[in-house]
C-alpha cells in the first residue's frame, strides 16, 4: 500500500465525511465553546482572587492555576472525567459528555485566569486609585473600570486559548462517549481502526485545520489592530492614556451622585 492510498484514499475520506460534518464537527464546537464559557467564568474569579491582597484568596487561586497548568491534559481528563463519577458525583447520570465539558472548562479556566491576571496587572495602578478616589468600592472599581480595560487587551490571547481548547477536545473520547457524542478525532480514529487506513484521520485533521487556521488569522489581525489601531498623533503613554480611557466611564458612573452645576 503506497502513501497516497494510506493517507489520501478518497473513497475512505468520502465515506467518513458525513459523520465528520454532521456529528464530529458540531460536538467538537459544542465541547470547545461550552468549555470556554465555563472556563471564562472560572478564569475571571480565579484572576480576581490572584490579584487580591488577601492571602486566603490569593494562595488557593495560585495553587489551582499551578496544578491545572502543570498536569498533562490527558491526565487531568482521566482524573476529573472519570474521578467525579467514581466519588459519587453522578448528577448527569450515565452520560460522560458533561464531564468532558467540565474537565475542559476547568483546564481552560486555569489558563484564562492567567490571561486575565496579566491583563489586569498590565493596567496602570492609577486606574484603581482614581476610581477609589471618586468613592467607588474596590469591587465596583474592578468591575466597571479595571476589568473592562483588561479584557480588551486579552482578546487575542483568549482566542488562542479557544484554539487550544478545540484541539484538547480530541482527548475527551477517553471518557467513553456514545456514537452520537463523538468528536472529530474519535470518528476518524474509529474509521481508521475499522478499515486499517489512515485517510479518515487525515480528513479529521483537515476539519480541525478548517476551524483553527481562520481563528489564527483572526488572532493575528486582532493583535495587529490593537497595536496599531490608533493614529500616532493621538496616542498617549503611561497613565495619561489610561486616564483618558477611563474618564468617560468614571464620569458616567458617578454622574448620578455629582450635583449639577
UniProtKB/TrEMBL annotation:
The keyword Cell membrane applies. The keyword Amino-acid biosynthesis does not apply. The chain crosses the membrane at residues 20-49, 70-91, 200-222. Residues 25-219 form the ABC transmembrane type-1 domain. Its main location: membrane. It is found in: Cell membrane. It holds the Pfam family BPD_transp_1. It comes from the Bacteria. Keywords: Amino-acid transport, Cell membrane, Membrane, Transmembrane, Transmembrane helix, Transport. It is a multi-pass membrane protein. GO terms for cellular component: ATP-binding cassette (ABC) transporter complex. GO terms for biological process: amino acid transport. One of its GO terms (molecular function) is transmembrane transporter activity. PANTHER family: GLUTAMINE TRANSPORT SYSTEM PERMEASE PROTEIN GLNP, MEMBRANE COMPONENT OF AMINO ACID ABC TRANSPORTER. Belongs to the binding-protein-dependent transport system permease family. HisMQ subfamily. This is Amino acid ABC transporter membrane protein, PAAT family. It comes from Microterricola viridarii.
